[in-house]
Amino acid sequence: MSKEQTTKPQTSRRKFLTGAAAATAGAATLGFPTIVKAQGPMSMRWQSTWPSKDIFHEYALDFAKKVNDMTGGDLKIEVLPAGAVVPAFGLLDAVSKGTLDGGHGVLVYHYGKQNALALWGSSPAFGMDANMMLSWHKYGGGKELLTKVYSSIGANVVSFPYGPMPTQPLGWFKKPITKVEDFKGLKFRTVGISIDLFQGLGAAVNALPGGEIVPAMDRGLLDAAEFNNASSDRLLGFSDVSKVFMLQSFHQNAEQFEITFNKTKFDALPAKMKAIIENAVEAASADMSWKAIDRYSKDHIELQTKDKVRMYKTPDSVLQRQLNIFDGVMEKYSAKNPMFKEVIESQRRYAARAVRWQLDTQVGARMAYNHYFGRRAAPKKKA
């Protein structure tokens, strides 16, 4: 083969590649699509503060699935149960440091870092229920205050309170609570500002994560405890160590769940992805409240029928005493912590009109329930 024959194909190949590159550049200039190497889906590793079988962990999985579905798989959130990476009470630090990308829990678990955080659920909330608290958070200044509170403790997180919890029970006891004095010396489990409230009632309080409560009661380390609802309490085994369930309380009548993201990772997401997440939070909030009605009502009945639990309404004298004690708690922490005072005053202003509106407009359910489901007197026989 001659030198001329050897050189000609190479020269032609160089001309072809140069022309192809120019054509591609021209296509880009004219606005034609170019082929770009696709990036794989983003993944996030989360942890909840709940055992894997608890309905609360199910709520966390529900949220993750909504995000995964709404993003078409472009963002995949994997949710691990409590203790898989860090203990339940260590979730905030783990998310803030980036050890975890996000988490599912409650704000009152961070009470030890800034007691103002307990006001998102662990108080009488001036009569607001949890849904009204979420209204205050979104429309009454709560969102801005929460950002300020987290900034004050250097937490590198983006927080989304969601999921309004129904009024929580007073708790599980060895015998019915009939008066305030029954709390004196009682070894009792609760969390957040509720610690101060039950101490004011006379109890010796121990704050434990959900999964540790029943074993502590079984070993006699606790005399009584509160957790949250009929479904979670039943699954955790409360009915195995107690047959007395006291219903209604002001200690956590307006609590919500919390979804947290590591702020650095969240801020790096595309705007479209952030919008999907924010809307998924609200969709999950509604779905959670509907699922709670369905599941809690079933377990409420089964606790009584299958587990032979006796249920009692908390006496009004105890409920009134809770409110009186919390007046002192508000005063104490407001004097020590300006941020606590700012949050509590914001909630008070919102509750003054929101609760009044609800009381004025919402018809009570008792009359209708008694009408349709109450026992009716047998018809009199004709003489």
What is this structure's SSE topology?
Elements lengths: L2 H28 L11 E7 L6 H16 L4 E6 L10 H7 L4 E4 L24 H10 L2 H11 L4 E8 L6 E3 L13 E3 L4 H8 L2 E3 L3 H9 L5 E2 L4 H7 L1 H4 L2 E4 L8 E7 H5 L3 H35 L4 E4 L2 H21 L1 H24 L4 H8 L10
Parallel strand pairs: 1-2, 1-3, 6-7, 6-8, 9-11
Antiparallel strand pairs: 3-10, 4-10, 5-9
How would you describe what is shown here?
It is a single chain. The protein has a five-stranded mixed sheet, with helices on both faces. Strands 5-9-11 form a three-stranded mixed sheet, with no helix packed on it. The chain has helices spanning 3-30, 55-70, 91-97, 130-139, 142-152, 194-201, 210-218, 230-236, 238-241, 263-267, 271-305, 316-336, 338-361, 366-373; strands at 42-48, 75-80, 102-105, 157-164, 171-173, 187-189, 204-206, 224-225, 244-247, 256-262, 310-313. The chain has 383 residues and is an alpha/beta fold. The longest helix has 35 residues, at 271-305. The protein is 50% helix and 13% strand. It has a domain at 42-166 and 255-294: Bacterial extracellular solute-binding protein, family 7 (D-Maltodextrin-Binding Protein, domain 2). It is globular, with a radius of gyration of 28 Å.
